[in-house]
Amino acid sequence: MTTATTIEQDQLLLLLTFLSPAFPTGAFAYSHGLEQAIASGAVSDSESLTGWLSALLIRGSAWNDAVLLRAVGREELASLNSLALSLSASRERHLETTALGGSFAASAAVFGDLALPEGETAYPIAVGAAASAAGISCEALIPAYLHAFAASLVSVAVRLVPLGQTSGLSVLARLMPVISEVTQRALGSTLDDLGSATFLSDIAAMRHEFQEPRIFRT
């Protein structure tokens, strides 16, 4: 099943800006535990990277983010943010989502006021709130968000494995159908669909806290 999406040009430009690697969230400093997975040998080439990222998209943290994005505007934002924060499986995952969320909210304020809950804000909640305020639909937002998530981690692997840039692009190409399928599921989701089963990724994030040496914050 496919969904046709119409988005106004100004909304498209804003969405591209929000999820651009140049948007000042500091996302380049976070590996989502992938640095530890590469160090341990769990991810060592384009095939294993594709499998690792596919799992995160289908049944891991990226899936939960997609469900949360769908819920923004449908659920009370403070409660949804608390739920999003509680989904962090480790200290480093909590650091990542709150640091990115805070930086994103501060930067997005340039384009208009955001009515966010007080205190720490989870990254998908900040992105969802900004997109909702701009009238950007979930049909456009979710695949763009998931693609940005995948592209950021492919960039980590290109530098650390290391993979060639062409190999990195081939991974993104193989992930595009996965992103489309996950988007379709997320568009029909409710909060009852939250949940992950990517234990190796969660353990990698926990072990990364004590990894020496390391380049990334998570």
Structure, described:
The chain has a single domain (32-205), classed as Orthogonal Bundle (Urease accessory protein UreF). Helices cover 63% and strands 0% of the residues. The chain has ten helices and no strands. The mean pLDDT is 95.
Shape, principal axes of CA atoms? globular
CATH fold topology: Urease accessory protein UreF
Structural class: mainly alpha
Unreliable runs: none
Largest sheet: none
Q: Could you give the order of the helices and strands?
A: HHHHHHHHHH
Question: What share of the residues does DSSP label as strand, in percent?
Answer: under 5%
CATH architecture: Orthogonal Bundle
User: Radius of gyration, rounded?
Assistant: 16 Å
Count of discrete structural domains: 1
Protein name: Urease accessory protein UreF
Keywords: Chaperone, Cytoplasm, Nickel insertion
Function: Required for maturation of urease via the functional incorporation of the urease nickel metallocenter.
Organism: Gellertiella hungarica
Task: Give the helix/strand layout.
Elements: H1 9-18, H2 34-40, H3 46-59, H4 61-71, H5 77-86, H6 91-108, H7 123-133, H8 138-160, H9 165-187, H10 199-208
Helix pairs in contact: 2-10, 3-4, 3-9, 4-7, 4-8, 4-9, 6-7, 8-9
